[in-house]
Amino acid sequence: MTSENFIDLPPLLSARGTITLPGSKSISNRILLLSALAQGTTEIRDVLLSDDTERMLDGLRKLGVGVEQLEPHVLRVQGCGGDFGETRCACFPVKQAELFLGNAGTAFRPLTAALALSGGDYKLSGTPRMHERPIGDLVDALRELGADIECLDNEGFPPLQIHPANLTGVDRVSVRGDVSSQFLTALLMALPLLDRKVTVEVAGELISKPYIEITLAMMARFGVLVRRDGWRSFTVAAGSRYVSPGVIYVEGDASSASYFLAAGAIGGGPLRIEGVGSASIQGDVRFADALALMGAQIEMGMNWMEARAPESGRLKAIELDCNHIPDAAMTLAVVALFAEGTTTLRNIASWRVKETDRIAAMAAELRKVGAAVEEGADYIRVTPPPSTPASPLTTPHFLLPASIDTYDDHRMAMCFSLAAFGAEGIRINDPRCVAKTFPNYFTLLHDVVQAVPVIAIDGPSASGKGTVAQLVAARLGYHYLDSGALYRLLALAAQRDRVMLTDESGLAALAERIGIRFEGERIWLDGALVGDELRGEPCAAAASKVAALPRVRAALLAKQHAFRRAPGLVADGRDMGSVVFPDAVLKIFLTASAEARAERRYKQLMEKGIGANIAALLLDIRVRDERDTQRSVSPLQQAHGASLLDTTALSIDEAVQDIEQAFQKVLARYPAKVSKEPGPV
Q1: Which of the residues 284, 327, 458, 658 is marked catalytic?
Q2: What is the C-alpha to C-alpha distance for residues 677 and 582, in angstroms, rounded to an integer?
Q3: Are 487 and 543 in contact (CB under 8 A)?
Q4: pLDDT of amino acid 678
Q5: Most buried residue among 71, 167, 228, 448 by CB atoms closer than 10 A?
Q6: Which residues make beta-bridge pairs with 272?
Q7: What's phi and psi for 460, nearest 5 deg?
Q8: Three-point CA angle 535, 539, 542, nearest 5°
Q9: Domains defined along the chain, listed by start
Q10: Is residue 327 annotated as part of the catalytic site, yes or no?
Q11: What pLDDT, in 10s, does the model give residues 401-431?
Q12: What is the rounded distance in angstroms from the CA atom of residue 135 to the CA atom of residue 112?
């Protein structure tokens, strides 16, 4: 189920297939800025189009940079370098501008440095969260170089006002390396705008080193070689100038690859990711090594990676220094839910200053699904719930169903989608936040996962759907849900607890707290075995009344979802295919004439020794049909995509056989996956 505010992911059974990654955000934004600063025109292919890159593109266009879109993921950028001669680059044509850069750190930090050394008057602002993210170390280093930068609200934080300055400062500056590698990246990319040699010294340990490697590699592609002394200092020579390489390709995003590699390791695989591999310049490709340490089977080529579940079926916990994979390490924190033992991820202090405080956010959401979590200044320790299954493909319900908050952080949304492999369903709030780096993430995810399959059989009262559904479930070895029984049980509980059938709030509260258990044809209500009173006409009539109440239906929805367990579910009711399980792989609308249904109900009651009048039963069925089809909430109707099966002239066995044959056709169409999510958010 999708909406503007959330997406409901069903319990996932397996993952396999092939996906092609979108371009890397980190590489895309670096190339966009370098293309703008370079001499000549650059054609950028496979560029990522997302919120963060749009912020960079918006900024460059406001600064007068010529940007032309040739194809959906191909841009042409006219550089501002001009003919160098004896003078430095003329930089941006527009010398006064206000830029709003959202929460895009890969746009905000590098543009701050480039504009500070460009001789113009610029205001840079972003979202409230961006204004909480530190930038003081970068600002201080730029001020040492002669830049005139004003922090408008709080010193060391955006928004910023940049003024024209006399850039005759020192030729050696220092920047801290233990807060964000983006500070060093921003400095290095901007230094060729100066006329002199400048050395940047790194104070303290440099975190996220692989991102600096990306920066150095991209600068080299544009003709600027940086001399380095290990990770201690970096020198940009005097006279360095950016020159367009002509055409440049953006690698697939290695951080985004982590979600699909993890899905393959958890959900069996094989799941192949194309667009990034062993030849990648991105450090996050080493996420595959971390998965291998956990027991996953990993294969890799120059431009692809593939993951399978461990041969043993179980992932194992690890303790890992994650300095080399700071973003992809978030995915490991969720994979830890499926590992045997306690996983500890260290050296992740940079999580605290990202789109949100990711250590605190991750800890809070992991606890929602039942994990034990310990968090520190630069580490997180995750122990899965004690009922972790022997194999992730056997029984998927060991995590608590949860509504996951995403904190306007794209990686929180994508990471926690993997929790659907272990719960009866996961709700991801604000799923559109993935647009920051991976706008079609949920579309690609549903293309490679198989949800626990559901056969939804809906129909009017006494159409035989309960008997047929139960037999189909037995033949397939699937679980069975009689949704009508839930409403009848609620009616019985209301009678027991003296709750009026017109008391919607009281009934909804009762629906949330009652305990229901099915075992074959036996049903328990709050621990007590229910007898024939559940099938009597008074109970059925009461159930029809309470089923018309919106709050009651909403309260029972989660209980119905809980029946969706491996290997599959057959569910019958009035709205199984339209509301409760809209992604059911097979939807049947089972019906029969009112006269045939009245005769069947009469025979059922007489066989149980219950007196009945066939004329009264026929009248009751017609009245109930009218009420069910006219109710405002989940009216009885043939769901979109459902096949009509009229059983007036069919036996029970014939109806069951028809449904089994229809299901086999579904399996033939989808041999690798019999479930498909409703679609993109």
Answers
A1: 327
A2: 9
A3: yes
A4: 33
A5: 448
A6: 18, 306
A7: -75, 170
A8: 145
A9: 6-21+252-451 (3.65.10.10), 25-249 (3.65.10.10), 454-488+551-669 (3.40.50.300)
A10: yes
A11: 899 999 999 999 999 999 999 988 899 999 9
A12: 9
